[in-house]
Structures are given as C-alpha cells and as structure tokens.
Amino acid sequence: MTATGFPAPPRSIARILQEHLDNSMACGHLLSALFQNLERPEGYISAIKHREEIGDGLIAEAYDALESLPYSELVGLVQQFMRHLDDIVDGLNDTARVIDIFTPSEPELAAEQILDLVLEMVARLAVEMGDYPDNTLERVKDCRLALKRCEEKADGLYHEWRKSHRRLSTLSLISETDWTEILGILEGTTDACYHAALLLERITKWRLRQAS
To answer: 138-144: which pairs have CB atoms within 8 A and are 24 or more residues apart?
Structure first.
C-alpha cells in the first residue's frame, strides 16, 4: 500500500529481476564469509536462508507481473529465465544447507574458487539486466560467451579437484565425500548462471525480430 492507502503500482519485470540478482550477489557474499567462518556457521547459514526466501518472494512477484500480460513466446522465455535465476540463489542456499549438515572444519580452495566464479557470473548478469529490455545482441552474446568461459573453468576446477583427491587425497573419506557434494552443487550453480545468459540472448533476439 502507498501512503495514500491505495495499492502500490506493480513494478516492472526488469526492476524485480535486477533486485533478484542483487539479492543473489548478497547471498553469495554471505556464503563466501561462511567459508571463512566454518567454526561458527549458524548466523551465516540463517542469513543465507533468509536471502533465498527473499529471492522466492521476488520470483513470485515477477510471476504475478507476468500474469497481467497476454501469453506470448516472450512470456515463456522470461519464465524460463526466471527459473534459472531462482536456481542460482537456490544453489547458494543448498550449499549452505549441506555445510550445515556436514559441518566441515576447513574450506577447500576449489570451492572458494568456484564460488568466486559464480559471483563473477551473477555480477555480469546484473549488468545486462540493468539494460533490459534494451539489450543489444552484441552485448548479450559477449555476456553469454564470458559466462560460458566461467562455466567451463568451474567444471575444470571440479574435475581436477576430484581427480587429485581420487589419486592422492589429504582428506578423510567422509570429508572427501562431503566436499564432493558441496563442489558439485556450486558447479551446478554456474550452469544455472550460463543457462540464464542463454535465455537472455534468446529474449533479446525475440525482441529484435519483433522490432524489425
């Protein structure tokens, strides 16, 4: 409600999803702080969960905004884009939940490196979202290629970590299994970032076709 007592006008999809990406960045920074404070994780885990719930609320708001539009190919593409954005913050929260279950005592460098890639990818998506719906095809292609490089780097980090620990592990079997799952969730989160970039490119192509 506004100060006058009337319902607030609906926000634009672009503004809602920009806020969602900003929220995911904040969630990622909390997860980074959690890695550095594994001996006292509770506050960080709770804060990350709160960020995930904020993300859920923003996605619900975005779906409500889409309901006012006639269904079109664009609406379907935006819905897919939103699902990938939701997968990003879910992946960050799932990482924190697994840490809560496994209670590791020391962070693994590979996990921190993959998380850094997630943050880099979310930041790039946020830049492109700032231009929505007036994105240029050149910029979104560049974004998609940049995120693909990050996704491949994360995949390589995960593979090399598993290979090195399979051959010469300094961790107990239980710790190795725990970190395998944690790194797998983070690597999957980079996939969600890349798929979001793919959808943004498809959305941009659709808009340009309609304008021609």
So the answer is: 140/197, 140/200, 140/201, 140/204, 141/201, 143/197, 143/200, 143/201, 144/194, 144/197, 144/198, 144/200, 144/201
pTM, two decimals, is 0.92
Beta carbons of 66 and 13 less than 8 angstroms apart: yes
In which region does residue 193 sit, left (phi positive, over 0), alpha (psi from -120 to 50) or beta (all else)?
alpha
How far is 127 from 144, CA to CA, in rounded Å?
12
CATH of 13-211, one of 1.10.443.10, 3.40.50.1820, 1.20.58.220, 3.40.50.920: 1.20.58.220
Q: Which tens digit of pLDDT belongs to each residue from 114-141?
A: 999 999 999 999 999 999 999 999 999 9
